[in-house]
Design brief:
Number of helices: 2
Region (Disordered): 217-269
CATH class of the largest domain: Mainly Beta
Domain Large ribosomal subunit protein uL2 RNA-binding: 36-112
CATH architecture of the largest domain: Beta Barrel
Order of helices and strands: HEEEEEEEEEEEEEEHE
Radius of gyration: 23 Å
Number of domains: 2
Subunit structure: Part of the 50S ribosomal subunit. Forms a bridge to the 30S subunit in the 70S ribosome.
Family: Belongs to the universal ribosomal protein uL2 family.
Number of strands: 15
Strand order of the largest sheet: 7-14-8-11-12-13-15
GO molecular function: rRNA binding; structural constituent of ribosome; transferase activity
């Protein structure tokens, strides 16, 4: 039999380092591990812990470098989000990360401004974007930076403009009024097939910092409201509760917010 050459781990890492784009240190930040614990050391978010070390990438959601040409230097993986990010090299020498729009390629040029071309990756006010176009990274408050439609494959659609507001259909199905002066980026966010990814093994969940979920009925009564009882006796109550004792069915969880008046049509059930 012919001998099969096995590439050692050290050699493989060298090959990978050559192909991977170099990260820009000025755009990286430290991302500490919390293990789901609050400042008092108590678990505030369950099923978190472990995970691989990672840096935070400082992504530019404001896109406020107006009328300055930016060239896409690289499309990079970001461990902190479900979509890829694009590294921009601006004409004045500055470098920034943005969310990579679907179809955005290395070498392309993108712009931000009042009257830039209607092209995927460009950012401009909603008042200058035609009705029916797909947009993402949308500002709720002008100048604050994009806050909604930032996930993989997401896009919103402008359905109408009335007065100082545009009617925008969000990915959830919600129809919402947004100021026409708010900035938005043209196109759909990339990584459209992210929803089809299967982790394949338990260990991959642990790399992501997701710890196992234990059913409440399998716990003791001191650990969960559903715990205890002889055999598989169910939850032992007429209405299910959360581990903190709050009812979980038939009760609205959204607080009354000032932004409710901007919602024209609630999201799909």
């Amino acid at each position: 039999m012919a001998k099969v050459k096995v590439i050692k781990t050290k050699e493989m890492s060298k090959l990978e380092k050559k192909t991977l784009p170099k990260m820009v240190k000025s755009l990286l930040g430290i991302l500490p591990k919390t293990g789901g614990r609050s400042s008092s050391g108590k678990i505030s978010v369950r099923h978190k812990g472990g995970r691989h070390k990672r840096f935070y990438r400082k992504v530019d959601f404001k896109r406020n470098k107006f009328d300055i040409e930016a060239k896409v230097a690289a499309i990079e993986y970001d461990p902190n989000r479900n979509t890829k990010i694009a590294l921009l090299h601006y004409a004045d020498g500055e470098k920034r990360y943005i969310l990579a729009a679907e179809g955005l390629k290395i070498g392309e040029k993108v712009f931000s401004g009042e009257k830039v071309a209607i092209k995927s990756g460009n950012t401009l006010p909603i008042k200058n974007i035609p009705v029916g176009l797909q947009i993402h990274n949308i500002e709720l408050i002008p100048g604050k930076g994009g806050q909604i439609v930032r996930g993989a494959g997401g896009y919103a659609t402008i359905t109408a403009k009335e007065g100082g507001y545009a009617h925008v259909r969000l990915p959830s199905g919600e129809l919402r009024k947004i100021s026409v002066n708010s900035l938005a980026t043209i196109g759909q966010i990339g990584s459209v097939d992210h929803k089809n990814i299967k982790l394949g093994k338990a260990g991959r969940s642990r790399y992501l910092g997701i710890r196992p979920t234990v059913r409440g009925v399998a716990m003791s009564p001191r650990d969960h409201p559903h715990g205890g009882g002889e055999g598989k006796s169910g939850i032992g109550m007429s209405s299910p509760k959360s581990p903190t004792g709050k009812k979980t069915l038939g009760k609205k969880t959204r607080r009354v917010k000032r932004s409710n008046r901007f919602i024209l049509e609630r999201r799909k059930r």
